[in-house]
Write a structure and sequence with these properties.
Chain A: InterPro entries: Iontro_rcpt_C, Solute-binding_3/MltF_N. The structure holds 2 protein chains of 2 kinds. By secondary structure, chain A is of the alpha/beta class. Chain A contains 9 helices and 13 strands. In chain A, strands 5-1-6-13-7 form a 5-stranded mixed beta sheet. A 5-stranded mixed beta sheet of chain A has the order 10-9-11-8-12, sandwiched between helices. A 3-stranded antiparallel beta sheet of chain A has the order 2-3-4, covered by helices on one side. In chain B, strands 1-2 form a two-stranded antiparallel sheet. Classes of the chains: A alpha/beta, B mainly alpha.
Chain lengths: ~240, ~300
């Protein structure tokens, strides 16, 4: 409460103060997709992308700040300028590329996998498959003939399988693998599906300078092996560069 | 050199409150629960309760003011003012809340930035709309790009208050408009016969008597507002429902010291109790206000109160 009152006062003050031109790059993420990004016990953004983003900002000599935003409105808020970068496990696809620009990919095209109740027989072409809305997995299911059950958060897709609403969930393998390993009642089923063109950072199409900076930093990390080290630490199932 | 918004934000919770929380895996049930409920994440949940209550405390009077303005405009004798009032009421009531919330906040934010851009950067030569992008000069950003995170959050909060107030203001305007028409015509005629001006009639006769007719409708609106606060997350403000969903979701031991199954039911149960308590308190307060307002009024309830006294 005090924070907010102080905020009003400072907001009024800053309006009249001449400040240096914006030098903070705001990184927008979802915070609900471990191991890519999640909120840790202390309430901070954590995960593969947290570590990667901090390292990229250090290399590009940028001051960065983390913000969380709901997945559904993550692109509209980027183009309207509420943050400058999307770093949220977002695969590079043609549809998204029409609206925003992507840096170089920082993961290989990542396998997606099906997760179902242990021992369940899943009909991948005719069953009910859950996915998070607005993901490449959701559009894959929609075109495969199976019934698509969409949810706003990744958590809910897993709960839908546990609750019997969906036969299986299709999501990034790196997200599903720890869940399958740590819960006795769930298991990965069927074959992996390769979707998308790898994960990249999303930036506004008009922001070419920022895109170049981050792409250069990503390429540098690919070259010196530090990106591979991060991938091995956080995404053991994924291919390295 | 880089700052983490979250880290500074949740610093209240980064150091465990209890000293025995260093290794939660070895703790007994009660101690584990004590540690679990005081993590930084839970502190953020407790903060968000304050956010919701603050939103209600600010939004309710502001929407009432908007509603009063809207209703007064809608029954004005000046035609353009009347059209404005009626359009406001019809337009906002007609659009679904959720569409309004998704569209309006971004539009409002862009409108503010557009005006600031025109004032602060007159010699800017690039277009503001570049394809899908909305680009204004750095000095026109609201809040400024290099402002600390809490300032962004405060700005988001006030955008939310404004949006809520506009939506609920339109409903309140309709309620008040009806209430103004419900005041017995004889009261106004008597006032006119005494030689009161239009303005005096409005402020001294109409307004004091209309509240009793408005209150049932307004109390409904208040209840709806209380339950509409989860829409906050659409506006980027992390409210209690967001945190309940985030905290309640199943957690695997790899990413947290406090793994647990799907506990959303318990979190939502706590929310249920919270909202029931809030509405229960509201009902009691509104009942008292109603009793006060009917006092001395020319209504059935007012007459009953007079006879009972």
């Amino acid at each position: 409460m005090k924070k907010i009152l102080l905020g009003t006062a400072a907001l009024a003050m800053s309006a009249s103060m001449a400040l240096a031109q914006g030098s903070v790059v705001r990184l927008g993420t979802e915070g609900a997709y471990p191991p890519y990004n999640f909120i840790n016990d202390a309430g901070e953004v954590d995960g593969f992308e947290r570590e990667l983003g901090d390292e990229l900002c250090a290399r590009a000599e940028l001051t960065c700040e983390w913000v969380t935003n709901e997945w559904d409105s993550i692109i509209p808020n980027l183009v309207s300028g509420n943050y400058d970068v999307i770093i949220a496990g977002m695969s590079i696809t043609d549809e998204r590329d029409e609206v925003i620009d992507f840096t170089s990919a920082y993961t290989q095209p990542d396998p997606s996998a099906y997760l179902a109740m242990d021992g369940a027989e899943v009909d991948f072409e005719g069953g009910v498959i859950a996915a998070q809305a607005g993901t490449i997995q959701a559009s894959h299911i929609a075109s495969s003939g199976a019934t698509l059950l969409e949810f706003a958060t990744p958590d809910e897709t897993i709960a839908a399988v546990r609750g019997g609403e969906a036969d299986a969930v299709l999501a990034d393998k790196a997200f599903l693998e720890p869940i399958a390993a740590d819960s006795a009642d769930l298991a990965l089923v069927g074959e992996d599906v390769l979707l998308g063109g790898g994960i990249g950072m999303g930036v506004r199409e008009s922001d070419t300078e920022l895109k170049e900076k981050f792409s250069a930093a990503i390429d540098e990390m690919k070259a010196d092996g530090s990106l591979n080290a991060l991938i091995e630490k956080w995404l053991p199932a994924s291919a390295t560069f | 050199m880089y700052r983490a918004a979250r880290a500074t934000d949740a610093s209240i919770g980064t150091t465990a409150i209890f000293s025995f929380c260093t290794d939660p895996g070895t703790l007994g049930d009660a101690a584990w629960m004590a540690c679990y409920l005081t993590t930084g994440k839970h502190m953020a949940l407790y903060w968000s309760v304050g956010t919701v209550l603050l939103l209600l405390a600010i939004t309710a009077p502001v929407s009432l003011a908007f509603g009063f303005g809207g209703a007064a405009a809608a029954r004005s004798s000046v035609a353009p003012l009347r059209w404005f009032g009626k359009t406001y009421i019809a337009l906002v009531r007609g659009v679904p809340d959720i569409a309004y919330f998704l569209f309006f906040v971004i539009a409002l934010d862009q409108a503010f930035e557009y005006v600031r851009h025109k004032v602060k950067c007159p010699d800017w030569d690039q277009p503001i709309r570049q394809g899908n992008d909305f680009v204004v000069c750095a000095a026109a950003k609201l809040p400024l790009g290099n402002a600390p995170q809490w300032m962004h959050e405060t700005y988001g909060f006030f955008l939310a208050v404004l949006t809520f107030a506009l939506v609920f203001g339109a409903f309140a305007a309709n309620v008040l408009y009806g209430a103004m028409r419900a005041v017995p015509r004889a009261q106004m005629e008597t006032a006119e016969a005494y030689g009161l001006t239009r303005r005096q009639c409005f402020w001294r006769i109409l307004v004091p008597q209309m509240w009793v007719f408005a209150l049932p409708g307004l109390s409904n609106l208040w209840m709806v507002l209380v339950k509409a606060t989860p829409l906050l997350f659409l506006l980027g403000v992390e409210d209690i429902v967001y945190w309940a969903r985030e905290l309640g979701g199943a957690k695997t031991p790899r990413f947290t010291d406090y793994p647990h199954g799907d506990w959303r039911m318990w979190y939502f149960l706590a929310l249920l109790v919270f909202y029931l308590f809030l509405t229960w308190v509201s009902e009691r307060v509104l009942a008292r206000v109603m009793a006060r307002l009917t006092h001395g009024q020319a209504t059935v309830a007012g007459e009953a109160a007079r006879k009972a006294a």
